[in-house]
Design brief:
This protein is of the alpha+beta class. 16% of the residues lie in helices and 35% in strands. It is elongated and about 80 Å long.
């Protein structure tokens, strides 16, 4: 079972240089998050930590598959996820009301480690499109469940009578 502390990076003893880390993200990682949209996954996260005197840069590369429901037919399928992102971690005294910026995280100078689990989780979710559909098969056909698609078909709308003033405009097409 994954634990949040498996994603702690103890940077205090690290030299100023680039350090490499790898994390295998599976189903147990997403169980750490209540009501996660993802329950099954097989991802590899490669992290390069570039440590400097007063800050460090985290470069993440995420590659693998997440199991998601199709928004069209609601069947689960493996969605390929390939993304990378960069976070800058700065050492500053945190004041009340001080918010993290989009790509910058502030931590106290007294900290000796940082937990990256939430960063990984958030960026995985951010990189899932708003609408997810089965990819087409090798022949270019829709790979959704045909039975579900048949049930979703709606009878074609009957054309309503068009005002005569507008019917002349149709001729211009």
């Amino acid at each position: 079972m994954e634990r949040r502390r498996n994603f702690d990076i103890h940077f205090l003893g690290l030299k100023n240089a680039v350090h490499h880390f790898e994390y295998e993200i599976g189903d147990s990682f997403f169980k750490l998050y209540e009501k996660s949209l993802i329950s099954e996954a097989n991802l590899l996260v490669k992290l390069n930590l570039d440590k400097k005197d007063s800050f460090f840069i985290l470069n993440f590369q995420v590659d693998g598959m997440v199991n998601l429901p199709c928004d069209r037919c609601n069947e689960l399928f493996d969605y390929e996820l390939i993304t990378d992102f960069e976070i800058i971690v700065k050492f500053e005294e945190i004041e009340d009301g001080m918010l993290d910026e989009a790509d910058v995280v502030y931590i106290s100078r007294n900290e000796t480690s940082i937990n990256i689990a939430d960063l990984i989780y958030d960026y995985i979710l951010i990189n899932i499109p708003m609408q997810v559909f089965h990819p087409n098969d090798a022949n270019g056909n829709n790979a959704c469940n045909p039975e579900i698609l048949e049930k979703l078909k709606i009878a074609p709308k009957e054309e309503k009578e068009i005002d005569l003033r507008w019917s002349n405009l149709k001729k211009l097409k």
